[in-house]
Task: inverse folding
């Protein structure tokens, strides 16, 4: 009920933030794809907590185990189960407010829906759930790279009121990974790190924007009318914890242009149809056109802060809360691999759907 994503390349994540383990079942991955735990671990290392001073200090190695679906380094075409043990959960940090609704968290929402909730670290509402997504996304990335030469690169474009100057067409993974905030603009990255440090000292948090480019995406991916490619990408991004906005191509800025300014003229290059500009973000009519897919994901400031806030208990009594414990003062650096994973999952699913329908 809501924990499964995709059609032909389908994933189901499981586990709670402070439970024994978290993970994912990947179903529909084609057979004979070269895959090892190292392929998955590389992506999990980019997502894991405790990797720098601008992330939560929860110490998790996030070491993955493949328990099924892979034999002698190749996928079997059967379900792939990936498990990651939780080793540094400190549930006692949450005990003081087990009956208190944390502002802008899912505490009240889960109570309203289920009549019960896991108050230890937020349960399924925690970003810890994204371990499974990133693990599955690593497989999707490998499939897309092997079959299509697709490259997916996300990076931090904005934190609070700081905006990076990045050329999406030229950005590289090495540039993104060159600093702890995952911003390929070195000067802006230093300012972003300083801003996050300031927010942490204040007991506060910051939000921002992850931008992404997917290169060498085959033309023809997308299933009109209800499964348009950008519609599925939007659902994927908006399913991430703390996500509050999605744009593709020109996004909201395109509303300030005229049609003659916004339209992407077609031209022939090297015997192939291309567009001279890419305001569409690589998708027209809900279908990829072979141009780079560009999109942005907005994330709110982390809800857990150390400032005193007014709230109520689960019995309706007014109270205040100053949350203690470990949390990200800004989710953006760790959100980059999460956004990449969700985009990879959508593209892999639509790649298989296109092959199934059109050959």
Result:
């Amino acid at each position: 009920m809501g924990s499964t994503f995709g059609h032909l390349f389908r994933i189901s994540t499981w586990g709670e933030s402070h439970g024994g383990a978290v993970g994912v079942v990947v179903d529909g991955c084609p057979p004979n794809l070269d895959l090892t735990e190292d392929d998955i671990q590389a992506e999990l290392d980019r997502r894991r907590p405790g990797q720098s001073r601008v992330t939560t200090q929860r110490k998790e190695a996030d070491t993955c185990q493949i328990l099924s679906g892979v034999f002698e380094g190749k996928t079997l075409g059967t379900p792939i189960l990936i498990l990651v043990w939780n080793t540094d959960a400190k549930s006692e940090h949450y005990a003081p407010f087990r009956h208190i609704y944390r502002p802008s968290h899912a505490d009240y929402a889960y109570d309203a829906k289920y009549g019960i909730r896991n108050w230890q670290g937020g349960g399924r509402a925690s970003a810890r759930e994204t371990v499974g997504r990133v693990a599955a996304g690593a497989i999707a990335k490998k499939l897309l790279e092997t079959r299509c030469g697709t490259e997916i690169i996300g990076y931090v474009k904005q934190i609070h009121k700081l905006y990076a100057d990045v050329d999406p067409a030229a950005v590289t993974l090495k540039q993104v990974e060159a600093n702890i905030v995952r911003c390929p603009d070195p000067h802006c990255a230093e300012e972003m790190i300083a801003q996050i440090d300031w927010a942490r000292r204040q007991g506060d948090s910051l939000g921002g924007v992850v931008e992404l480019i997917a290169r060498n995406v085959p033309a023809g991916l997308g299933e009109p009318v209800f499964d348009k490619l950008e519609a599925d990408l939007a659902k994927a991004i908006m399913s991430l914890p703390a996500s509050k906005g999605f744009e593709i191509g020109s996004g909201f800025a395109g509303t300030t242009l005229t049609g003659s300014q916004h339209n992407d003229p077609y031209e022939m290059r090297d015997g192939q149809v291309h567009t001279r500009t890419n305001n569409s973000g690589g998708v027209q009519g809900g279908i990829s056109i072979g141009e780079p897919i560009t999109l942005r994901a907005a994330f709110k400031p982390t809800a857990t802060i150390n400032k005193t806030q007014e709230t109520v208990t689960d019995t309706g009594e007014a109270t205040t809360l100053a949350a203690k414990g470990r949390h990200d003062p800004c989710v953006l650096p760790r959100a980059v691999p999460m956004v990449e994973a969700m985009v990879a999952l959508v593209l892999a699913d639509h790649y298989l759907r296109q092959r199934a329908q059109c050959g």
Summary: The radius of gyration is 21 Å. The longest helix spans residues 332-358. The chain has eight helices and 18 strands. The first strand starts at residue 4 and ends at 5.
